[in-house]
What does this fold into?
Amino acid sequence: MRRIGLLTSGGDCQALNAAMRGVVKSLLYSGEQIEIYGFLNGYQGLIYGNYRMLDGGDFSGILTRGGTILGSSRTPFKTIQDPDPNGLNKVEAMKHSYYKLNLDCLVILGGNGTHKTANLLREEGLNIVTLPKTIDNDLWGTDMTFGFQSAVDIATEAIDCIHTTADSHGRVFIVEVMGHKVGFLTLNAGMASGADIILIPEIPYDIDKIVKAINARKERGSKFTIIAVAEGAISKEDAKLSKKDYKKKLEKRAHPVSYEVAEAIKAKTGQEVRVTIPGHMQRGGSPCPYDRVFASRLGAEAGKLILKGEYGFMVGYKNREIVKVPLKDVAGKLKSLSPDAAIIKEAKLLGISFGD
Ligand code: F6P
It folds into this structure.
């Protein structure tokens, strides 16, 4: 008999359920006797001992279901070692839940912050296996995270819809895409939808270069311009600020970056500019077929690791192969796009401006 804990932590995304289903199915089909403890709302469930006992039936019919059957929450790593408002030691409380239920291992699905805590629990002696989720695709150690392709589909569709309206009205349209501090989602959705200008955090923009690209399109007879802006896009001036000063500026900023870009374009070109922000839509709905397959594969491989008793790994994807990556290597690192990446050079060959 193996006792497995499961939890989903951080911002949700598509295919969390598909991934958990993959883990459980692969364990059940091995003939292994298992008990499954699903901790509710991420690490909060582990800290406060809130869990549900689950069986195979709970994982039936959830391959296509968005969100997470366990619920999720953000439990910031930077305060994980601080006592809770009632003085509870959160790390000890998580260990207590694990040992009280006599778990053999804990399967944790999450992104960057989640992996820091997962690694801490590993250091504390718990058996941990993790799976890489996030629409941002910013997790180090894996070329791809599940949720990413589904979010690319949604953001692409949003820009596709804007395209027709931009054409009808001859306007500049900005679509702001999620992605936190990296530009994978914006770049891919932007390229997939034929955006003319793509602004990503990894390439600070110069507003005059954006205006130049808009004017050049106008001179070539294009009535409209589509700009895909990453939520973390940053101007060249702001990129020169210290991290502390930039953080202060962000705290004071009343509107998302897209509105700053829109105002500046309006002022410099006199053109009508509209901003659309699909926001959390990008994390919602049913996972795309790619993510269903991908998350199922990752889940199945996690099941394999558990059966072999190999713990302390994230199941990732490198060079088109599923791999196990030591958690100690993953925790605390951010994956971002290199401005010299082939895809960026190719986008530039297609005439896409990055405002640089
Ligand atoms: O990490 C996923 C993500 O959707 C980011 O793209 C975005 O910056 C953030 O989460 C939004 O977080 P929240 O759901 O807490 O508003």
Summary: The domain at 2-147+287-330 is CATH 3.40.50.450 (Rossmann fold). DSSP finds 13 helices and eleven strands in the chain.
